[in-house]
Give the backbone structure.
Amino acid sequence: MAANPKAVVLLSGGLDSTSTLAIAQHEGFEAHALTFRYGQRHAVEIEAAQKIAARMGAAQHIVVPIDLRLFGGSALTADLAVPKDRSLDEMGDGIPITYVPARNTIFLSFALAWAEVLQAQDIYLGVNVLDYSGYPDCRPEYIEAFEKMANLATKAGVEGALRLRIHTPLIRLTKAEIIRRGWELGVDYSLTISCYDPSPNGKACRRCDACLLRQKGFAENQLVDPSLD
C-alpha cells in the first residue's frame, strides 16, 4: 500500500493555519508542520502550534528560529501599539501596522527548502484575502508568482523531478466559512490562539483585529469560541 504523499504545512498555532492542516490531512497528505519563532510578541502561538501538531498527528513538526525583531517595522515585531477596538471599515482601510514586512516570502522560502529535502511537491498555507486583513502577501497573484519562482529556483524544479504546488484552501473563504469547514473536519479550536497582543499568561485580548474577526466568525456560525472558556 503506497504511503500518503508528503506536504509541508505552515502552522502558526492560529485558527486559519490549524484549519489548513486539517484540510491537508483530509486531502490525503502526510503533514510536515513548520512553525516560526520570529520574535513575534504573541509567541504563545508557538506553544499552541506544538500542541496542535501533536494532537493532530503531524508526521513532523519543526520550529524555526529567526529574529525579525532585528528589522522591526511591525507592531508584532517592534514596540508599536497593536490596534484595538477597530470597526470593520477601519480594518479594511489600508495595510495594518500588524503587517510584518515580507513575512510570507520568508516563511515560504523555508517551506520550499524543506519540501525539496522531503521530496514533497506540495506546500499548504492558510492565507486569506477576505475579512479585511489587507496584507499584500496574502493575495492570489502573490501566491501564483511565488509558485512560479519556486519552480525556477530549485534543483527539483529545474530537473523536472518535482512540480511544486502551493495550496491556499482558505484564500477566498470568510472567517465564518473557515470555522465551519474546520468544525466539519473535527478541528479543536480550543487549542488555537489568534490574538496579536495576548496577556502574559496567554489569554486573548479580545480587542485586536484578529480577535474581533475571530469572534465575528464564531458568532456567524452561532458557536461559542472554545478558546475563551
Remarks:
- The beta strands are 6-10, 30-37, 60-65, 122-124, 165-167.
